[in-house]
Specification:
- Helices cover 71% and strands 0% of the residues.
- The chain is mainly α and 263 residues long.
- It has a domain of 144 residues.
- Helix 5 packs antiparallel against helix 7, helix 5 packs parallel to helix 9 and helix 10 packs antiparallel against helix 11.
């Protein structure tokens, strides 16, 4: 066989710049896909959160409106009986009155849904709670977001480091641990469970204030004196215009505490 009849097999080499280009494109596509997945996951989370809040608020509203439904059902039944006096079936009248009252029950509950959320039931108190919670998060070195969420940190050492506390101090360790637990609990009350009967009745705000006050009390032990004095002055001004029982004794206690911290 002649050499001219032989098939010359030539090896094809891919330029390195093409390889680098393909690698960059693949990396860019992977990053874009990861970003899209994260965006979709965040969107689905917000939708689930909104759906849960609406269903909780609507359920609470149904319970509230349900207190007057027996009266409405009785009035509707009497009205149907007067309109259809010759009806031979009393069960038919009762059925019409009950079904009509049930439909009105579900419809009337819709506009009352907003009053069963933490934000709408008492907007002023809700706004103050959010501000105070934001201050608590900042004192613990936590990153706060617009929707009230934040990155929960599994390791307390990270919280100690971000907040600038002494990790070797057992006392500060216990104080920050307790304050961080209160911070998580209050955030869940305001942002993960922001709807229900507890907000309409006011018990939700009472519980939230109790948790917040406890966290602020324990944080006083690791806060500098100037900040404590400033907060004491704010409490003093708030007590002056209040009608709290034992106000004079509380004012004297604040004065004595400030004189000790700042002679």
């Amino acid at each position: 066989m002649d050499d001219t009849s032989k098939t010359n097999v030539q090896s094809t080499t891919i330029p390195s710049d093409i390889l680098n280009l393909n690698g960059s494109d693949m990396q860019q596509n992977l990053s874009q896909q990861t970003s899209n997945d994260a965006t979709d996951g965040l969107r689905h989370y917000k939708l689930r959160k909104s759906y849960r809040m609406i269903t909780q608020a609507y359920g609470a509203s149904i319970c509230i409106v349900g207190m007057i439904i027996p009266v409405i059902a009785s009035l509707i039944t009497v009205g149907v009986y007067l309109i259809l006096p010759n009806s031979n079936s009393q069960w038919q009248i009762l059925l019409i009155g009950g079904v009509t009252a049930a439909i009105l029950w579900l419809l009337i509950a819709i506009p009352f849904t907003g009053f069963c959320t933490a934000q709408a039931a008492n907007p002023h108190t809700y706004s103050i709670l959010r501000i105070r919670l934001h201050q608590l998060k900042m004192s613990l070195g936590l990153v706060d977001y617009d929707d009230g969420s934040y990155d929960e940190i599994d390791s307390l050492e990270t919280v100690m480091q971000k907040g600038g506390f002494d990790k070797n101090s057992r006392h500060q360790w216990d104080v920050v641990k307790e304050a961080y637990a209160c911070c998580i609990e209050l955030s869940r009350k305001l942002f993960q469970f922001p709807a229900g009967l507890q907000w309409y009745s006011g018990s939700g705000y009472t519980s939230a204030w109790r948790v917040l006050h406890h966290a602020e009390e324990v944080m006083i032990e690791v806060t500098d004196d100037s900040t404590v004095v400033r907060e004491a002055k704010n409490d003093f001004r708030s007590l002056q215009g209040s009608k709290v029982s034992g106000k004079d004794k509380l004012l004297n206690d604040v004065k004595n505490a400030v004189s000790v911290l700042k002679p």
